Amino acid sequence: MTPAARLQAAVEILDLVIQSARDQGAPADAIVTRYFKTRRYAGSKDRRAVRELVFRAIRRTGEQPESGRAAILGLVQDDPDLVGLCGQPRGPEALRQDEPASPASLIPEWLVPELSPLVTPGEWPALLERAPVDLRVNIARTTREEMLREFPGSVATRLSPWGLRLPSDTRVDDADASRNGLVEVQDEGSQLIALACDPRPGQRLLDLCAGAGGKSLALAAAAPGATLLATDSNRARLSKLPHRAERAHAAIETRLLSPPRELAELEDWRGAADLVLVDAPCSGSGTWRRNPEARWRGTPERLDRLVSAQERLLDIAADLVKPGGSLVYAVCSLLAREGAGQIESFLGRGSDWVAQDSPEGAGRPDGCGRLLTPAHDATDGFFIARLIKPC
Q: Containing H/E element for 72?
């Protein structure tokens, strides 16, 4: 592919990404992969160059662009080397006078007042930096020291005692340790959620929004002998966990839930859990480093729906925790309403609950919980709160 053809390919992919964001469809990474599956003429250098153009355009554009061309024209404004590619054979059309280009921005304007006060403008650039690859060591079967030797170039994470960090884009899926369940790809911040649960052998642990089970696996590794139930309402995501658990030698039961009947379907756990983890569906604003196009997916209406869903899940979890047990609430979000505001509201509804600081003390205090941010903690953005049900 010529440089001009690569630029036009980026335009076409961005059109697909924008439409997918509007439809709550596939992420940008998957769209790039799918695009090149039908274009075998593109070599590895072409694919790499086009992908770089696509994600440069996404990262510089906080507001959803009108089109892929508008997003690329914004990039052209910043990079004079790209100007001459417009109008070339197989490239984008020549520039037209007064043609609109997407302005550069980091945060969608409507989201700025929703951010936690801790996320000041000085922290915003770190939200879009490329994230490293973090691994969680399966401490039930190996040690971090052994895995540091297994992955040359890795370093121990600063906050999680289970973590390794590798450079961005490091491929680990083919490594023996990954295939054998000795490590799992998991951001250090996500590992800290499992640490905040402080799981113990013999406890009854319930991961209410388990998804594909990353945190369930961490809980199982940290507390061998615990009774662990992972639930979710998404069949496709939850179905991935049994294979992952078998690979990790982890004993995890799964249960598919059917909203709004969750409490009836969990009657055997009602008032019986030592710990319930609510890793709730959220805006994903803490993961923009990995999914920068997620900024284009949100709307005020969608945020309102998510906040309502989080509130409902917290109330369900409260019924499942036994007296003296713990509820850990987490969201990969930097928005106040999804984090500190959500816990303030919960405590207002159930004032007998007591907030307890997370054992690992990572991040910064934010209301009755803690906030992890890329700039301050070098992790994805997470809000974590630990609550105790009185006896």
A: helix 68-78
